[in-house]
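Is this the right way to post structure tokens for a design question? Let me know if I should format differently. Anyway, here goes:
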């Protein structure tokens, strides 16, 4: 926690060019993350004999610290660096209908994957009488990945077998860094309490494609609902 606070203070000092008398303020926030994979190549991840659907989103959470740094004297524009622990992820449903064993009608795979990131953001924020808009880049480091897979075998006679597997912590097939952008809006009261909705999209492929033919691309795609609070103290002059 001390390292995170030190990082925010250094970033804030380097970013702020002009501050109002209240100076920059430290805040905390937490909320829900609703994520999935996006991109036209997601269906290629499982291979040519599979039909993959990626429409379902995975519910996770986010929490962290931020600095609110006034740039204009009237508070209209500010810069907001943040450090968040963000649990994103995705759910994939895949069917295999070719290359099957004798007597098998189809194989169905349902994979739920939890991706834990440490995200660093630097947002520009426009404040209009409580209502605010924010936009900026985000860099994420993949700290942990875990997944659960449910495999269902359906036979020609109508019988089904279901097997569940827990793969544990595995990141070997994933990119460790995620560069993206965030856009959002929300409302902040004079007391420092806020609520906001964000959309986050990754720019580089989540899947490490170096060993996959045709290099399929799949990107993090998430909505974030957050509640924040500015602590009643000033870190400026």
């Amino acid at each position: 926690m001390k390292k995170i606070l030190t990082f925010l203070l250094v970033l804030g000092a380097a970013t702020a060019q002009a501050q109002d008398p209240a100076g920059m303020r430290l805040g905390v926030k937490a909320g829900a993350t609703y994520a999935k994979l996006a991109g036209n190549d997601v269906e290629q991840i499982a291979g040519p004999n599979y039909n993959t659907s990626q429409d379902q989103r995975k519910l996770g959470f986010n929490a962290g610290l931020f600095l609110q740094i006034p740039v204009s004297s009237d508070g209209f524009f500010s810069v907001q660096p943040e450090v968040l622990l963000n649990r994103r992820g995705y759910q994939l449903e895949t069917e295999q209908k070719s290359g099957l064993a004798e007597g098998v009608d189809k194989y169905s795979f349902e994979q739920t994957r939890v991706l834990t990131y440490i995200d660093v953001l630097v947002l520009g924020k426009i404040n209009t009488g409580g209502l605010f808009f924010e936009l900026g880049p985000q860099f994420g480091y993949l700290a942990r990945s875990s997944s659960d897979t449910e495999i269902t075998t359906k036979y020609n006679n109508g019988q089904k077998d279901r097997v569940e597997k827990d793969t544990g912590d595995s990141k070997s097939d994933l990119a460790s860094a995620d560069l993206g952008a965030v856009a959002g809006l929300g409302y902040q009261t004079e007391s420092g309490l806020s609520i906001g909705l964000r959309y986050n999209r990754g720019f580089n492929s989540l899947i490490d494609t170096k060993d996959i033919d045709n290099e399929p691309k799949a990107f993090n795609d998430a909505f974030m609902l957050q509640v924040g609070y500015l602590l009643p103290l000033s870190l400026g002059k």
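Format looks fine. Someone answered above. Worth noting: The two ends are 24 Å apart (CA to CA). Confidence is low (pLDDT under 50) at residues 15-21.
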